[in-house]
Design goal:
single chain; Peroxisomal Thiolase, Chain A, domain 1; 2 domains; 13 strands; about 25% strand; binds coenzyme A
Length: about 325
Amino acid sequence: MTPPSPSVGFRFAGTGSSLPPGVLTNDDLAVGMDTTDSWIRERTGIGARHIGSSTSELSTEAGRQAMQRAGLGPADIQQVILATTSPDYICPGTAPAVAHALGLDCGAFDVQAACSGWVYGLVVANGLMLQGMDNILVIGAESLDRITDYTARDTGILFGNGAGAAIVQQDPTGAGRILGWDLGANGDYVHILYAEHGNVLQMDGKEVFRQAVVAIQRTTAASLEMAGLTVADIDLVIPHQANVRIVEAAWKRLGFDMDKTAMILEKTGNTSAATIPIALADSLYRGRISQGDKVMFIGFGAGMTWASVIVEWNGDLTGTEAW
Ligand code: COA
């Protein structure tokens, strides 16, 4: 069970995102596998995914934007947390290279919690702020094209590359705190979505679908309970996006409204740990978030892992269009 947590007041001082220029459309995929654009759109909601660039390159661009928007220089950032399931190397982590590229010499480490990673990172950042840090760069970034077989009819249609970032900054006024959060995992489901060393992603799509819907319901209920809120109190939900039908199935059970949901996957596919921060920057760009709004992030993915955070928005209102 998740313990109730104190939260420092904080602001999202700046956000950013980056997608590589290479685009793989459904029609492109149909050249190498038995599929069609209409099948993929109808069964997943995905029209295209981006490929190319490395996790560190995409992270650096998203992080650079977030620092610029926050008006912060290298000396101001005290920690880099990089959520990724497709690091540049097995060893070392990718965060130190990103910190170096941004001119930082603070602590830097990777979080590997698959598609839930950025939300895990946000909770970790809150803990580090409770320990006195002021500015923390939390990035979610993937180069999933390195571990995806684009001729496989299950995984090949889903995954793409990208990065999103946010700087969370301690705010002594006490505004913008985390109202509720939940982190969870069940290692009994390793076998339904995994990649072995040197190999591509393997997936039991139907079981992942089923378990994802269960995980979303479970983590949403836990965070809402901690926050003392109901579904109706949430102004905008930013869920992880693997297949639009997963979100729709969970929303039907929870009572969330698609109109209050930030969806980007039609043009990005599933970018794992990067999806939520890319969608956050895009929501700000589109003016979908106002000061004081209750914004909920919901992650789920391989592990299985799941994670959710509800924040009262405080911070920068500019953003980056996802594409
Ligand atoms: N293109 C065209 N037809 C396809 C296809 C493709 N890419 N993949 C499967 N099919 C066909 C099958 O051959 C089957 O045909 P049949 O009915 O004639 O036998 C039919 O479509 C249904 O196949 P199925 O494997 O049951 O598809 P599905 O509805 O389970 O959809 C996924 C497959 C991968 C889209 C779906 O399982 C999924 O999205 N799961 C969740 C994955 C996920 O979220 N992963 C990341 C988690 S973070």
